[in-house]
Structure formats: C-alpha cells, structure tokens
C-alpha cells in the first residue's frame, strides 16, 4: 500500500501540489472564521445535578448573577454623596439595559453583604438576558460601563466576564507564542537539516495541518459547542507533528539518495518505510486523543476534535504532499546549504549508538537509576488536589481577576459563591421553613437565605467554594430529604467541581482501558510481539507519572510561580486528562519511530542487541531533534497569561523531552537487553494472526550498517 502511495506521489507530483494549493486556499478562508465560533467554557458536565440546577435557576428564577460590577470609590467610601449618586446612576443605566436582567445593587437595596468590609467598594450583580451572544455582549457591556467616572471606578467580573477575559487572553497568547516559537524553530530546523530548503518543508506541512484543522473547527463550531482552547492544541501539535514527520521523511529520502537511488525510487522507498512508521504513529496518537470523546465536558471533546483532525491531516500531508515536494525538488532538497556543511547531515549518530551499547551491556546499572529518577519525580502526585478553573487562572491585572480577588478578600458575606439549592416546584411555607432549618444545621453552613417563594436557597458556608470542606457541605446538603412533593437540586461552584471531577473519574477507567487496549493492538500489529506493547505501556506510564508529578510541584505547590507569574491552585482535572492523552500519544509516536528501525534491523537478521544499537543509532538523532523542536512549540505556551494553558505547554514539552531522553535513550535499550530474544515473542496463534493481518514493509537492500565505537 505505501509503495503505491509513493509511486502515485512521485508520478503525479505537480498535480498533487496544485490540488493541495486549491484546498488550502479554501481551508484558510473557512478556518479563519473559527475564532468567532468558539467558546471559553465547557468544563462542566451538562447532565450533572449542578448543571440542571443552574438551568432551572436560569429558566424560572431569573438566572444566577453571571456579571458582577465592582464599584470602588475614588475617595472616601461608597456611602459618600458623590460615590452614592454615581452608583445610583450606574444602577439605573444597568436596569434599563435590555441586555441585562435581575440587576441587584447595593445602591438600590442597601444589602450589607454587597458592601466591602472597609466601605470603599460595593457590588452590582446582573444576569445576561441572552447568553447566545455572550462574548459580544460582555465586550459591549464592559465598554459601556467600566472605567473611572470621576467619583467611582467600575471593574467587571463574574462568570461571563471571566470567559471573555480568558478568550481575549488566549488570542493574545497565541500570537506571542507563535511569534516566539516559529522563528526559533525555523533557526533550529536550518541547523538540523543543514539547508534552508529542507528546513522549510516542516513549516509547509505544519501550515497545511493547522489551516485544515481550523477549517474543521469552524465547521464543528457551527454545529456544536467547541472550546477556544482547541486553537492552542492545533497550533502546537500541528507544527510539532509536521516537524516529526518531515524529519523522518526527509532524513530517509536523503539516505536513499546518498545510497544511489534515483529521485523517484528514493521517494517510493521513503514512503514505503517512513510512511508506514508515520501512519502507525499518527493512528496511535489519534487513538489516545479519541479517549477524550468519552467525557461529557465539551472542553475535553474539543481537544479530541482538534487533536484527531490535526494528526490525520498532518499524516495525509506527510504521505502525499511531502513526497510530491521531494519528487519535485530531488537533489535540490539540499539547496541553501549552510556554508560549513559540506554534505547533507547523516542520520546515523555514533553518540546514541554508544548509549544503546552501554545500556545493553549494563542494563541494571543504566535502567535502575533512570527508573528511580522518574519515580521520585512522580512522588508529588500522591498529594494532588483537583479543581475547576476560575478567575485566578488569569493575570492579576485582568478586570475579572480584580473583581474575583476583591470578592474573596473584601466581601465575606457575598453569596455569589454560595451553594445554590433550587426545588423543581413550589414549596409550602411550613415545609420551606423546615427545609431551611435542616440546611442551616449542616456542618460548615454559616447562613441560609431562602427566596420569598421558598423555591431557591443560598447556602452560605465559611469555606472557600472550591475546597474539600465545601464539597463535603454539598454532599451533606444533597443527602438531606427534599421538601415533600419536589426534588431539590444542588448547584454552585463547589457542586460544579464535585460533579465535574466525578464525571471524569467515573469514565477514567474506560478511557484508560481503551487507550491501553488499542495501543496494545496497534503495536502488536506493528511488531508481531506481545511483550513489546507491554514494555512500551509500562515505560510510558513511568514517564507520564514523572511529568504529572512535576506539574503538581509547579502549579499546585507553587514552585516557579514567581518566575512564570501564576497563582498556585488545585490542578484542573480536565487539563490533567488532556495532558495525559497528548503526552501518551506523542510518547507512542516516538516509540513507533524507534521500534520501526529496531525491527527493520532485526528482520534483516541482526541479533537483538545489535538491532537495538543499529535502530537507536539511526533514530536517536532524529527523535532527539524532533523532541527539542516539538518541545519548543509547546514551551512557547509557557508565556501564556492563563495558568492552565501554561501547565499544558510546559507539561507537554517536559513529557516529550523525558520520553526522548530517559525513556527512548536509556530505558528502551536496557529493557530490550533484559528481555533478550523474548522481546519478539508471541504465542503461536497470535503469531499466525500477525502473519495474516500485520503490516510489514516490503524488503529492500539494507543501507550500510553504522559503525559505532564501543
């Protein structure tokens, strides 16, 4: 199959490139409309009790306050005549705005809870009348009502404002990240490939993958909810995979040219070998990401949409477009060669060959310290805490973050973060009073504020809304018997966190089982061995555990928080799941890269130890270079102003580097040495199954074996 693809790309190269250009223009035009269709939320389970409670409050009780206006007196207190008059005028304007409903103001109601402890600030809460155009509405409201009026300064916060601020921050961060990553990657690519023309090929494939996925997200954004954060994954993963695939293809193409093959034959053999490896690697990454489709949060499903799309498009571009480019370029792939490079760089690395030989001779001496380092790095996972994003993921200068900090520090009686209880029908006065008493008796509850109709209760606690103690309050409230004849639904921040974490943990075994099973099957089809997939799974879990442990140390415990400028918080459960799937998929991608050359050498008749040395010497340089370049692409997101995007970028980059060095460089050769010839073992029935269904490349004359000094 891959030989046929190679022949097609070589024989119809210009036609392939012309069609690609036309498709790319259309994808670009459609793709740039995606930004206006994507959402900044999606962290909640739509079927959870907390979500149903919020929907009921919106439908029957005017909705929860999703906008909070923080009014600060420029001088004195908010009760001074000038500040009070300005606050009253602002309240009247907000009440008359058709975009808002349920306006509640300190300057109108005089509720003490809406006034700060020191008297310098007050609150006005409101609900968006139409949440369909939420981002645009919030932007217009912020432009109309915030700023310094002379007597008061107004800042906008609340759930909807946080979403808008995050949306804008992500857009700015994307430009900053790409302005850093692309030039750095281009310079590194020129150094790696040794020529300008070859260095531009990964960027071409990356551009195709990114624009194609933007078009996909635009289409999906018209049909369903898609998270704006999928853009970050698209750019980082699209550019990174393009680098991986181009390094593999171009290196193999150059190797064939150096062996005396014609351009056409070199293209065919490159697709036949490297194309097979790329396909297995891409399918493995896509399978890992497909597990995200099992979760109800559209934040996670959006990463599956983007990740699967960008992986498959990058794979197709590498299988068809890149060979067509190579067929047209031929020897000119080395054009623009660096002055100090007299020839194209070789793919054979004596360094990685020596590392593999040393690990093969002393597997315990090399492997045991590597495992110990990974286990120690994973240790902080034992104290991991989970949370959901709030305004504290933003910089302290963001308007919604300013409001959030003020609510936490100056408004202890504010009920916007209370546990919200709503009944599905009317409740009699006596039953409502009895239910209020039961709520007030729950440990940790400071006050209960029932509505006039007795259908809604604000349960105010003394605990921070995302703490474990606040979640226990939610569990205790849910355990109470509801008033007769109705059902009581419990919502609020603590309930959302409890439900979101529960929905992920409930589906986690199924997701992990799917990833493990499909990875095992794919690697078995690739190698014909049952021990190779098991070894790969164990090593990858070690590397991922170490990465997640370091993320706990940095983003929960606060190491490097001063340098990176974020607020330490419990880790977002959704982002941890995303990081696991991305890192696992990319780790398996590199596993396939290395294992393909080891198997190729083993199939040529080399012994297990020599096959490992041969395979690692031929792939070690490619994998390490690809890892550095891909890590740069992800590390650029460390400049983000949104802390969980920082965690995603730094975690992905770290996982890639750990995998390319400790796992591939040390543990793979040590593990293969300990397994010996058993590494390729499979029971006879599975061996026969592999002979029928497994995919293997066509035989070809082997290139010259690398000479590696002991």
TrEMBL record:
InterPro entries linked: MMPL_dom, Mycobact_MmpL, SSD
Compartments where located: Cell membrane
Membrane association type: Multi-pass membrane protein
Domain of life per record: Bacteria
Family: Belongs to the resistance-nodulation-cell division (RND) (TC 2.A.6) family. MmpL subfamily.
UniProt keyword Cell membrane, yes or no: yes
UniProt-listed Pfam families: MMPL
PROSITE patterns in the cross-refs: SSD
UniProt source species: Prauserella endophytica
Transmembrane segments: 174-193, 200-220, 226-248, 278-299, 305-329, 364-382, 508-527, 534-555, 575-598, 619-638
UniProt keyword list: Cell membrane, Membrane, Transmembrane, Transmembrane helix
Domain SSD: 209-328
Name of protein: MMPL family transporter
